[in-house]
Design a protein that fits this description.
alpha+beta
C-alpha cells in the first residue's frame, strides 16, 4: 500500500513527523527517526511513560509526514496503525539500526524499557513539487 518513492524517503535518513492522539482527541506531533521493517514503518520510544507510548497504548492510530532532507519539495504522508510492538533486546536491535542510519553509531542509551512500534500503512501519498530549494 505504500508508494515505493515514499518507502525510499523513509529508508533514507529523513526525519518522520509522527502524530498520535491525546486523550481528548487532539493531535500530538513529534519529529523523530523512522525506518522500514519489511512492509511496516517502524518508530521507537524510550519508555512506557513517554507521551507517544501512552497515546499509542490507548489508540494505535498514527499519521506520519516526511520530507526529503535534500529536497524539501519532495515528501509524503501516510496513515496507519500499530500492528505490533517489540520490547527489550529485540527493540534495541531495531533502535541500533535506526541510530546507525542517522548517526553512524549504535544507540548510546541501553535502557531495557524501550519499545519498537511496527506501523501497518493503511493509506499513503507521495508528492513532488517542481520548485528549487534556494532560500534567500
Amino acid at each position: 500500500m505504500i508508494d515505493e518513492r515514499l518507502r525510499d524517503l523513509i529508508e533514507r535518513a529523513n526525519y518522520v513527523h509522527v502524530a498520535t492522539l491525546m486523550p481528548d482527541g487532539s493531535p500530538s506531533s513529534v519529529a523523530m527517526w523512522g525506518g522500514m521493517e519489511g512492509d511496516f514503518v517502524t518508530i521507537f520510544t524510550g519508555g512506557p511513560e513517554s507521551r507517544k507510548a501512552k497515546n499509542l497504548a490507548r489508540d494505535g492510530r498514527v499519521a506520519i509526514s516526511i520530507i526529503d532532507f535534500e529536497n524539501p519539495y519532495r515528501g509524503g504522508q501516510l496513515r496507519g496503525h500499530v500492528a505490533e510492538t517489540r520490547h527489550g533486546a529485540e527493540a534495541l536491535e531495531a533502535m541500533d539500526r535506526l541510530s546507525v542510519k542517522y548517526t553512524g553509531e549504535p544507540f548510546p542509551w541501553r535502557a531495557d524499557q524501550g519499545t519498537q512500534y511496527l506501523i501497518e500503512v493503511d493509506w499513503s501519498h507521495y508528492a513532488e513539487l517542481g520548485f528549487t530549494h534556494a532560500p534567500a
